[in-house]
Specification:
With 467 residues, the protein is of the alpha/beta class. The chain contains 13 helices and eleven strands. α8 links the parallel β2 and β3. Bound molecules: pyridoxal-5'-phosphate (PLP).
């Protein structure tokens, strides 16, 4: 059953459509079987499965392969070598699962095959993206009138927002950075915390502001920028704050820092990839106090909100600054009145990922988002209590969903982590926190239950004992 037309065997339109329907039903069945089986398998793929990926290598065949055969290869060899991520026991990095509504929306988005660059190409994609951006702004408690872009992740969100910062500061200094680049431009100082996320530095590098050309502010034992150690700031300064440290979950004290930075005329940018979502919960909102005073924010849809990959959001208080940094003009781009995503984000042609963001948030509502924050943070505390009770050392104040734990010496900790990964009940990675080797537990998935926590905890403690 070849969906691909071959010049030697022309198919009628009806049979093409029939074959496509059969293929998509087959793919949906494979996907559902995958999801249902995930809970029973090891979180990390078995080494044999990773080895078997070899089958998918090799040169591109000279002729076509039927779509059914392609799908079969993917499911037979691809599925087993994935990391089980949508179940409740993957605590690696800061990874959400994918909400059912977001997954379903993503299937539909793929079927639609919309190009979300311009309104004329997809009114649906553009309207839903606009609505989703406004929902995110509201959920995070940010100023009305803030503009934004739906991008691929917080790295690109940092890049996008910082491009608006660069534009504004250099325009103020009489320099057209989009037109003239940075050669000969007046200098801009970028201030970051010692615990800045690597993606902010990468964004600064891409923007010509330099990964190393930053002023680093010392941090405390939780990784929070010290408000008493800030350098001189002025209207040529970009200050990058962090809401949610990727290790400890800690928040820079924005309330203590922002007023003076604003007074000095600095541009305040917030990397709040996951932490900013704490603003949706009564219980955790206090950590995000003060961040609303910033000029721009970067966050992720694919972390705490559990939208599937990839989904990040850049928000900028002054949408005109973002537009000035990102807009694109060409004679064939004769556009209407509508807000065009291509004027606000770094891409032109792009996936309609705003639709998935819309669908996920719509399914959660305000309370659903707050519940994810509260439930995962309470799971994190349960991990910390269980580990502490067994004599392990928890290295951070568990303020939200992140836990750092040491099992003793660095070697021992790494051994235990390897054993936990191999045993397969759960998955956690390693980190080095202020000189201490630790295992990092991030509870970010909507799907994690208390039973998942208890099963994982039992497996972790067993692995620790075996050492
Ligand atoms: C995850 C993370 C990033 C990078 O986000 P991506 O979506 O992976 O690009 C940046 N900053 C912080 C604090 C993060 O946790």
């Amino acid at each position: 059953m070849a969906v691909t037309h071959s010049p030697h065997s022309p198919l009628s339109a009806a049979s093409v459509s029939e074959a496509r329907t059969a293929l998509l039903k087959h793919a949906a069945r494979d996907a559902m079987d995958y999801l249902e089986g995930e809970d029973k398998r090891s979180v990390a793929p078995r080494p044999e499965a990773v080895k078997a990926l070899q089958v998918l290598r090799g040169p591109l065949p000279p002729g076509p392969t039927s779509a059914e055969a392609v799908l079969h290869l993917l499911d037979a060899y691809g599925s087993p070598a994935t990391v089980a991520k949508t179940g409740g026991r993957n605590f690696g990095f800061v990874n959400g699962g994918c909400l059912p509504a977001a997954l379903a929306a993503s299937w539909l988005v793929s079927a639609w095959d919309q190009n979300a660059a311009f309104f004329v190409q997809s009114p649906t994609a553009i309207v839903l993206e606009e609505v989703a951006l406004e929902w995110v702004r509201e959920l995070l408690g940010l100023p009305t009138g803030t503009g934004g872009a739906v991008v691929t992740g917080a790295t690109m969100a940092n890049f996008t927002a910082l491009a608006a910062a660069r534009h504004t500061l250099l325009t103020r200094a009489g320099w057209d950075v989009e037109g003239e680049g940075l050669f000969g431009a007046p200098p801009v100082t970028v201030v970051v915390g010692e615990e800045v996320h690597a993606s902010v530095l990468k964004a600064l590098g891409l923007l010509g502001l330099g990964r190393n050309r930053v002023v680093r502010v010392p941090v405390d034992g939780q990784g929070r920028m010290r408000a008493d150690a800030l350098p001189h700031m002025d209207e040529r300064t970009i200050l990058c704050l962090q809401a949610g440290n990727v290790n400890t979950g800690a928040f820079d004290p924005a309330g203590a820092i922002c007023p003076a930075a604003r007074e000095a005329g600095a541009w305040i940018h917030v990397d709040g990839a996951f932490g900013l979502w704490a603003a949706t919960s009564q219980e955790y909102r206090r950590w995000t106090n003060g961040f609303e005073q910033a000029d721009s924010w970067a966050t992720d849809g694919h972390k705490w909100p559990n939208i599937g990959y990839d989904c990040g959001v850049a928000l900028v208080r002054d949408p005109d600054a973002l537009r000035a940094a990102m807009s694109i003009q060409a004679s064939y781009l004769a556009l209407g009145e509508h807000r065009e995503p291509s004027d606000y984000n770094p891409e032109l042609s792009r996936r309609a990922r705003g639709v998935e963001l819309w669908a996920g948030l719509r399914s959660l509502g305000r309370s659903g988002m707050a519940e994810i924050v509260e439930r995962t943070s309470s799971h994190a505390r349960r991990f910390a209590e269980g580990l502490r009770a067994a004599g392990c050392q928890v290295l951070n104040d568990v303020v939200i969903n992140q836990v750092l734990v040491s099992f003793g010496t660095p070697e021992k900790t790494l051994q235990v982590i390897a054993r936990i990964q191999e045993e397969g009940t759960s998955w956690c990675g390693s980190t080095v926190w202020q000189g201490h080797t630790a295992m990092r537990i991030s509870v970010s998935s909507w799907a994690t239950t208390r039973d998942d926590v208890d099963r994982s905890l039992a497996a972790m403690l067993k692995a620790a004992k075996e050492g």
